[in-house]
Structures are given as C-alpha cells and as structure tokens.
Amino acid sequence: MPTIEHWIGGVETSGASTRRAPVWNPATGEQQAEVVLAEPADVDAAVLAAHKGFEKWRDVSLTRRARVMFAFRNLVEEHIDELAKIVAAEHGKVVDDAKGEIVRGMEVAEYACGLPQLLKGEYSDQVSTDVDSHSFRQPLGVCAGITPFNFPVMVPMWMHPMAIACGNSFVLKPSERDPSASNFVAQLYADAGLPDGVFNVVHGDKAAVDGLLDHPLVAAVSFVGSTPIAKYVFQRGTANDKRVQALGGAKNHAIVMPDADLDFAANHLTAAAFGSAGERCMAISVAVAVGEVADPLVAMLRQKAIETRVGPASDPRSEMGPVVTAQARDRIVGYITSGEKAGAELVVDGRGITVEGHEDGFFVGPTLFDRVTPEMEVYTDEIFGPVLCVVRVDTLDEGIQLINAGPFGNGTAIFTNSGPVSRKFQRDVAAGMVGINVPVPVPMAFYSFGGWKASLFGDKHIHGPEGIKFYTRGKVITTRWPRLETPEDHATHMHFPTAV
Questions:
Q1: Which residues are catalytic?
Q2: Which parts of 236-386 are beta strand (E)?
Q3: pLDDT tens, 132-164?
Q4: Which domains does the chain carry?
C-alpha cells in the first residue's frame, strides 16, 4: 500500500508519525493509499524548517522571488494533466473539472509574479522642514494554510503563492482525504528553485491543526472549511496572537427572474449545483424562483438533472463523479430522506444510483427538490452534495430578504435581463461575492475571495490585494538629515513634534 508522507525541509519523511489514514478511490470504493498523520513533533519540525527557510528567503530580492514564482507557474501549466489526474483519482471530480481548479490556482501564482509592483510603498517628500516620510510592507514569518478536500490544488494556491512571494515561508496542512496533490506541488516548487524549507507540507488531522494554531513561531494562519471549524480556528489562533483569516461555509442562492433566459439559467444552475458533485463552497444549492418562472424552471432543471452523466473521473464521458467518501455519501443521502419527510417535493431522486463497473463507488446522483421552505433541514444546512432546492417567492424583494435572513453570506447570483433589477440586487444583497447571470462568481486573482457573516472570520479576504495585506505588515519611516546651521537647529524642544 503506497504511503503518502510529509514534505519537510525539501524531503519526504514520515517523521514521528505512527498513525495512518486511508486514502480512497471514490469511484471504486477501494483504498488506494495511506497517508501519515502528524504528531506534534512533525508539526514542530515543519515549522522549524519553515522558520529557517524564512530567515534567508525574506532577504531574497523581489526580482528573484518573482522569477521563482514565474518558474513555478510554468511548471504547474506543464504538469497540469498529471496533476489533474492525481486530483481526480483521490477527490473523484472529473478530470476537466480538476483542470479548471488548477487553472484558477495558477492565476493566483500569475498575480503573485507581479509582487515587485504590488508591494511598492509610498514616499512623501518634505512632510515637514527637511523631513521626509516613506512606507513599505514586510513579510510576517512562518505562515500556515489549513485547507479542505474539495479543491486540493486551487484553495492552497490561493494562499501559498501570495505568502511566499511576499517573502514568508509556508506550512500547508491539506485535507487527509486527498493529500497527494500537495506533495506534487511541493516538488514543483523545488524544481522552480524555491529554497528548501520555504514550502512544507504536513499531513494530519486535528492534532496537526492544533499544533499549527498553538506553535509560537507561526505568525499567520489561513483556513478554508466549514463554519464551525472556521470559528474554532479563528478563536484559537487569535487567542495565540496570530493573524487569522478563516473562510467558513455557505448556502448560496441564485434568484431567477421572470425575464431571464430560462434555458441559459437552467444550464448554468445545473452546472453550479451538480458540478464537482456539489462539493464546492460556491455551489448553488438554492434556486429562488420568482413568480411565474417557477413551473417552467423546475421542468427544465428536472430534465437537465436526469440527463447529467454520472460516472468515474477516468471516463471522459462523465460530467459528474462520485463524492469523496462513503461517509459523505451517507450524509447526503440522509439529507435527501430528511427533505422528503419534511414535505419538499422530490422531483429527481439521486439516491441508490449505480454506475456499471463501479457499483461500490461513492455515488449520489443529481437531486432536485421543489417547494422547499426555509424551516426545512435541506434548506438550512450546508449539504455539500449534488442537491438543488427550489424555493418559490412572489417578488424580488422577497427573494433578497430570504437570502439576507440566512446566516451565511458567501456567494449569490441573479439571472435577469434587467439592468435596474441587477443593480438593486447587487446593492441590497448581503453577500461578499455576487454574480449577475454568473452562478459561481469566484473572483479573478486580482480581486479577493471572501464572504460575509458566518462565511468569514477575520477582516481580510483571501488572495488578491487583501491577500497581500494579510501576509505583510506596514512600516512607516520618518527621516531627517539636519543641517545644523543655526543655534536653533541645536536647540532642545520638549513639545510633541509637529509638521513645520
């Protein structure tokens, strides 16, 4: 059985780890590898290696840092097919979907290549007589990333290219469910010329998470995952005087107006709800049908859900793969049963699906509910599976109120051909990322990703301009070169200095 080890100080090692966890093939239901689970000594070794790497990397010129990042970006592109197959084999998403997440992660590396420009400070001449002032930003030290299973390449790449380009070192704790991609990325960094210790990977569970949150040499922690764990990470990390950004869960809604192009809306809602088997924090899980659009919309969504081709990632005909584990499958099936019992109309039932030749795989088919109400469990909870709920409302205002009443504020969307309607929606809705005829409004790398309310703990979004601010801290320098030409120049002044 292959063993997936840590990557610490430029080499793969099991370190002090004695515990192991299975890594499954979601399409077959068979174990394909095991991953080591870190002990506190492994976390300490990784952080110490990162601290040693930081002491040298922080003084490397901006130009060289950018060149290393550029080389890394090119290597990711060169190996995209291989990396996508690794993701598909352990996560279960189809290969094209895996390539899509790698491209979005690569865009952050491209943005990080521009750090020499983006890190430029400010300068003010003659702020007072013979006094000048300037500012610049410096790296924090050892930064850590704790990332989820659903995007084993993209989400970590929202973090480490930014942190490393800013002059920090990095320790990544990826999900133990699909760990291999992180080791592959570590090798690409090494091939790009990144010094040993600047990027490290520690595999593990809660013990590894707590080790990073408690370690005195970790300066900042970035997290993406469920809201309860995001809150835990934020509270424990900040209690230990760390800078923390913790992105939590979501229940993303998309309003469909009567004037929308229904075929366009139904196509994109289907992709947004069932792509990657619904295992996306930006998946659309609630379609809010306004007025008369409801019946024809549900009919279209039903047909498209039935037509979605479910199969293993290894089959190029597959449009949707399995979910990541048997436990995830069983949890999703439980929610479908709960929705049916609560009185929602089960239009398409994804339970009990079988894929020929992969009967033991962790498959759940596309599932569509109609006439869902806000008190139902399928509405309130983040299911994280291929389940789309349709809620019917009479007006746009009612739809916006429905969205704003929820605890999450990650992403939301509207389908409409009306400029005034879209403008009202984007101004009134309480969410961090809004799509107008774009159901999954993940920002480009030169903007920042992040939600509102229980979808984010901390004051900085991830990657983009706010990512630079998160991974650096500002310093302001005030400079005087006195002329000492008159007795007044030599005088002692006890008052608070002011501009003169």
A1: 281
A2: 243-247, 252-256, 284-290, 345-348, 367-370
A3: 999 999 999 999 999 999 999 999 999 999 999
A4: 3-248+455-477 (3.40.605.10), 252-436 (3.40.309.10)
